[in-house]
Amino acid sequence: xxxxxxxxxxxxxxxxxxxxxxxxxxxxxxxxxxxxxxxxxxxxxxxxxxxxxxxxxxxxxxxxxxxxxxxxxxxxxxxxxxxxxxxxxxxxxxxxxxxxxxxxxxxxxxxxxxxxxxxxxxxxxxxxxxxxxxxxx
Length: 137
Hints:
6 strands, globular, EVE_domain, THYN1-like_EVE, 5hmC_binding
């Protein structure tokens, strides 16, 4: 299993909206960055990810799971853009902020810390475990 981080502005798509979609999940549409798209193309069913509220809050608030493989993004006719479908698994007991990540030496190489603009990014096994502990799970 691989681990990822999905960023969303909560006023555009929030954790609560993700949870409300239930087991059918939601397409992670609108990604227009080749690197982020390629990450989605590499995802497998059952991969887990952190759900990150960007701009407002700047915090990891929950865990999601890939429930649909990369397919054409339904919000565009441009064949270059794909998306996966993700479903909410569980909230973190405590949100983990960007500042928390930057302050933790174990996370110094995390993509979120070094390239906060990338909307879909990989997370290492060690980073996953650290964030889960920080988040109370």
